[in-house]
Specification:
Blueprint lengths: L1 E7 L6 H5 L2 H10 L25 H14 L2 E6 L2 H12 L8 E6 L4 H11 L4 E6 L6 H16 L5 H4 E4 L5 H9 L2 E2 L6 H5 L4 H9 L4 H14 L8 H14 L4 E6 L5 H15 L7 E6 L4 H4 L8 E7 L27 H18 L4 E6 L5 H21 L9 H12 L10
Parallel strand pairs: 2-3, 2-4, 4-5, 5-6, 7-8, 7-9, 9-10
Antiparallel strand pairs: 1-10
Helix pairs in contact: 2-16, 3-10, 4-10, 4-13, 11-16, 12-16, 13-16
């Protein structure tokens, strides 16, 4: 679970100001379903049947087992926020030995990515997962067309059994799956499911990579219930409330500080989640990320900008710890660190950054991912990040993920590309 520490916020926001946000957050959470068992509640698909076994989950696991048995790699195409979430979660924790490796193609089949795919996948056994919330975005459709041609050129056998589609059945991508005999995965049409890493497509990829997705769903569903508590002991509400209160006090830029290189993709996902959720809401928060203390020199004096507040997220440390060696010459003067490891250096550097920010009265929200980074805790982390973005957006007057600008752009692109729609309804 995530814990939220506001020790370095109280110089900028008073307790009464924070409490003023409580009703707004409650109303927003109620609008999203508030953790109750409502069919239209936010991420309510996690609660179907029971918290660990949604109706479609067994089908996902069965299909993913087929991928593991026949493939070394699963190439993930498209997906938007779902793909970013997959990259973030898999960068924090590896799958199991019986899982296949995930490769992410996005929607890019320009020469350089194609050359990389050829070096990696040629003469290898692989499957393809194509994800699209609408099933109509041209880049995903064109990428699938190109990859099918490559599979033919590489003489890949059983192509039909190696392509999996996640898209609405009535969409172009869904109709392609039905016409060509590709497996069409269960699809949830609600806006929360189409953008979540915990949707059927995301869970299919994680299961293929060897993750226990039942445990992942169980951890996510438990977190949904705990984060529905109407209390400022709720770490989710504390985080959202402090963001809103700081924004109202003139701190309109938030910088997410990551303390582990593994979390860089987590920062990319966090930024994309919040940007897309907030959309054109009132008083949106500008978003940046930084890997501290490694990127301290890049931040420069901007680290102490008076309009900025910081969110520090700390992850559980794992792996092999290598102590600093004694050097009899001591040319760099760091023999004082002999026997200590790099984690100690990072901890002291972050303490120094915290102290400097506090002295300059710059607010810092501290988030700590408690535990050992289990699969269930990964599910809880995903819920925290997705739900905090959506709650902040709703409290700011935005309608999360319900934007049509990209659809209009794609429609214009289809016109320019002279797309033939005559076969789409057949």
């Amino acid at each position: 679970m995530i814990s939220t520490d506001l020790s370095n916020v109280w110089r900028s926001v008073s307790l009464p100001e924070l409490l003023q946000e409580e009703q707004t957050i409650f109303d927003a959470h109620l609008l999203l379903g508030g953790g109750r068992r409502r069919e239209d509640g936010w991420l309510s698909f996690l609660e179907e049947q029971d918290t660990a076994r949604p109706r479609w989950l067994e089908e996902i696991i069965f299909s993913a087992q087929g991928v593991k048995e026949q493939s070394e790699y699963l190439l993930v195409v498209g997906g938007g926020l779902t793909q970013l979430g997959l990259k973030a979660l898999t960068s924090l924790s590896l799958g199991t030995e019986d899982g296949c490796r995930l490769l992410f193609c996005g929607e890019d089949v320009s020469p350089q990515p194609i050359a990389h795919l050829e070096r990696t996948l040629r003469d290898k056994k692989f499957s393809i997962l194509v994800m699209s919330a609408t099933g109509e975005d041209p880049f995903t459709l064109i990428t699938l067309r190109t990859l099918r041609r490559l599979m033919e050129d590489w003489a890949v056998s059983d192509v039909r059994e190696r392509i999996y589609i996640s898209a609405p059945e009535v969409s172009s991508l869904g109709q392609i799956a039905l016409a060509e005999g590709f497996l069409l995965l269960p699809y949830l049409s609600t806006s929360d499911a189409s953008e979540s890493v915990l949707n059927p497509a995301g869970l299919f990829a994680l299961s293929a990579a060897g993750y226990n997705v039942k445990e992942l769903c169980r951890g996510a569903a438990t977190a949904m219930e705990e984060y529905a508590l109407r209390s400022f002991e709720n770490p989710l509400w504390l985080y959202v409330g402090s963001r809103l209160a700081l924004r109202d006090r003139g701190f309109f830029e938030e910088c997410l500080c990551l303390t582990d290189y593994r979390a860089q993709m987590l920062g990319t996902w966090w930024k994309a989640l919040n940007q897309k959720a907030m959309g054109r809401g009132e008083k949106p928060i500008s978003l940046e990320t930084a890997l501290l203390p490694r990127e301290l020199s890049r931040c420069g004096d901007g680290l102490f900008a008076t309009h900025r507040f910081y969110t520090m997220i700390r992850l559980p440390m794992d792996g092999v710890s290598i102590p600093v060696e004694m050097d009899w010459k001591d040319l760099d003067g760091y023999n004082s660190l002999s026997g200590k490891d790099f984690a100690h250096v990072e901890k002291e550097a972050l303490a120094a950054i915290d102290l400097n920010l506090a002295q300059k009265q710059i607010p810092v929200i501290s988030l700590e991912w408690e535990g050992r980074g289990t699969v269930g805790e990964m599910g809880a982390l995903a819920v925290f990040l997705e739900l905090s973005a959506v709650l902040t957006a709703v409290c700011s007057g935005a309608s999360p993920f319900l934007h049509t600008e990209s659809d209009a752009i794609y429609h214009r692109l289809d016109t320019v590309l002279e797309r033939n729609f005559s076969n789409l309804s057949n």
